[in-house]
Specification:
Transcription Regulator spoIIAA; 7 strands; alpha/beta; two-stranded parallel ribbon; 4 helices; five-stranded mixed sheet
Amino acid sequence: MNIVEEMNGDLLILKMRDARLDASTAPALREALIERIAKGQQSIILDLGEVGFMDSSALGALIAAVKKLGPLGTIAVAQMRTPVARLFSVTKMDRVFSVNATVNDAIRSLGA
């Protein structure tokens, strides 16, 4: 799994560099998110601009991270391509995650 990490104040921005987030990458995605949460990160933005395909196992990794964060943390997603945005819409995960057109929109939505 290829992730580029950047901090913007207290916000952690994770740019997913894989074209696919699926069953083969979901365990590494979950581990990467849980590891950062365990280190105290509470506001995470996932830049999904390079992800052309995402399946339910990758979505499950994101849900596991949200559960680990609890009510005090937030995961926002940004720059979703149409197939990924459709997955979030069909599964109603667009109601669980803060969905943003751009990373800058996500930064503003999280109050930074």
